[in-house]
C-alpha cells in the first residue's frame, strides 16, 4: 500500500527508476558486498568505472630429508633408510573475487619413508627387501578477507534460508556464489572459486617388495613378492567453480522471464534470479585397495 503501481511489460514509474521499497533484502545485501569503484571512467581499457586492488599471494615451501646408509659386515648387508617431509603453504586474498570477503590457505604437507636392505649371501645369491610409505595431505582453509567476513554472511546482510538446512553445510555462514550473464556478463563473479571449499583430502601408499636374485652360469633367476596398499580419505567432492554447498545464484536478465527487468543488476536488487543451485551434505569417501604380485 502506498508503493508504486507496476504494469507488466511497462517501464518503472518515476523515470524508469526502481523504487527502494521494492528492493529485496538479500538482493540489496548481494549488491552491498561489491566495493565501490576507485578508478574513474576512461582510465581503463573499457572506459567504465572500476575497482582496483593489489592482490597478495605469498607461497611458502619447506623441505626436510634425512638419509642414512649403513654397512652391516656381519650380515654382508647394506641398509639404507630415507625419511622425507615436504610442506607448502599458499595464500591468496583474491580467491573470492573483488568483494574480498574470503581468503584461502592451501596446506599441503607430504611425508614418506623408505627402508631398503640389500643382503649378499654369496657372490651368486642376493636379496633386496624394500618397504616404503608415503602420505599426501591437502587442506584448503577459508578465512575472512580484507573487506569483510565471508564466513559470516549475516554480517553483510545475507539471510535467506537454505533448502537443506544449516546442518548440511560445512560452514553455515559462508557466503553464496553469484554469477552474471546477459548484459552484465562482464561483472566479476563473487566466490567463483571459493565455492567448493573448505575441503581436505588424504592419500596414502604403502609398498612392500622382496626380490631374491640367483645367478647360475649364464642364467639369472628372480623370485619375490610385491604388495601395495593404496588409500584415500577425501572430503572434496564438489567441483571448483560450479558447486557451492551454500548456494549459487545466477542472474542473466533473461527476456523469457516475465519477472525480469532485462538487466541482471536490477533483477538482483528485486530478488529475481534465473537459476539457484544448492547442495546438501557433502560426501566423504574413504577407501582402501590392495594389489599384490608374486614371481
Properties at a glance:
295 residues, 3-stranded mixed beta sheet, 7-stranded antiparallel beta sheet, 3 helices, mainly beta, 10 strands
What does this 3D model show about the protein?
The chain is mainly beta and 295 residues long. It is built from three helices and ten strands. Strand 3 and strand 4 form a beta hairpin. The radius of gyration is 30 Å and the shape is elongated. It starts with 12 loop residues before the first helix and ends with a strand.
Sheet/helix structural class: mainly beta
Computed over alpha carbons, the radius of gyration is 30 Å
So what's the overall shape?
A: elongated
Average predicted confidence as pLDDT: 87
The total of beta strands comes to 10
Our count of helices gives: 3
User: Any low-confidence stretches, pLDDT <50, length ≥5?
Assistant: none
The SSE order reads HHEEEEEEEEHEE
The description of the largest β-sheet is: 7 strands, antiparallel
Termini Cα gap: 86 Å
Proportion of residues in extended strands: 35-45%
What is the strand arrangement across the widest sheet?
Answer: 1-2-3-4-6-7-10
Kindly state the percentage of residues in helix. Answer: under 10%
Please render the helix and strand layout as text.
Elements: H1 13-16, H2 25-32, E1 59-72, E2 77-92, E3 102-122, E4 125-144, E5 177-180, E6 199-216, E7 219-234, E8 248-251, H3 264-270, E9 275-277, E10 285-294
Parallel strand pairs: 5-8
Antiparallel strand pairs: 1-2, 2-3, 3-4, 4-6, 6-7, 7-10, 8-9
Helix pairs in contact: 2-3
Amino acid at each position: 500500500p502506498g508503493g508504486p503501481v507496476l504494469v507488466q511489460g511497462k517501464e518503472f514509474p518515476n523515470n524508469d527508476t526502481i523504487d527502494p521499497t521494492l528492493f529485496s533484502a538479500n538482493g540489496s545485501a548481494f549488491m552491498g558486498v561489491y566495493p565501490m569503484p576507485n578508478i574513474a571512467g576512461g582510465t581503463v581499457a573499457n572506459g567504465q568505472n572500476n575497482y582496483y586492488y593489489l592482490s597478495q599471494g605469498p607461497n611458502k615451501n619447506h623441505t626436510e630429508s634425512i638419509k642414512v646408509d649403513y654397512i652391516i659386515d656381519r650380515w654382508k648387508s647394506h641398509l639404507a633408510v630415507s625419511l622425507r617431509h615436504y610442506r607448502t603453504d599458499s595464500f591468496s586474498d583474491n580467491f573470492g573475487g573483488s568483494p574480498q570477503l574470503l581468503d584461502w590457505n592451501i596446506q599441503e604437507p607430504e611425508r614418506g619413508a623408505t627402508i631398503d636392505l640389500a643382503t649378499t649371501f654369496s657372490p651368486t645369491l642376493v636379496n633386496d627387501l624394500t618397504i616404503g610409505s608415503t602420505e599426501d595431505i591437502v587442506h584448503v582453509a577459508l578465512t575472512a578477507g580484507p573487506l569483510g567476513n565471508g564466513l559470516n554472511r549475516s554480517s553483510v546482510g545475507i539471510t535467506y534460508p537454505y533448502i537443506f538446512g544449516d546442518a548440511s553445510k560445512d560452514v553455515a555462514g559462508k557466503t553464496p556464489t553469484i554469477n552474471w550473464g546477459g548484459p552484465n556478463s562482464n561483472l566479476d563473479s563473487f566466490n567463483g572459486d571459493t565455492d567448493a571449499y573448505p575441503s581436505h583430502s588424504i592419500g596414502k601408499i604403502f609398498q612392500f617388495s622382496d626380490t631374491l636374485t640367483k645367478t647360475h652360469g649364464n642364467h639369472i633367476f628372480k623370485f619375490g613378492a610385491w604388495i601395495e596398499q593404496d588409500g584415500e580419505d577425501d572430503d572434496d567432492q564438489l567441483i571448483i567453480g560450479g558447486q557451492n554447498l551454500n548456494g549459487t545464484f545466477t542472474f542473466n536478465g533473461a527476456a523469457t522471464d516475465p519477472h525480469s527487468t532485462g538487466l541482471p543488476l536490477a533483477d538482483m536488487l528485486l530478488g529475481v534470479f534465473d537459476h539457484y543451485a544448492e547442495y546438501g551434505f557433502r560426501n566423504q569417501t574413504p577407501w582402501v585397495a590392495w594389489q599384490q604380485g608374486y614371481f
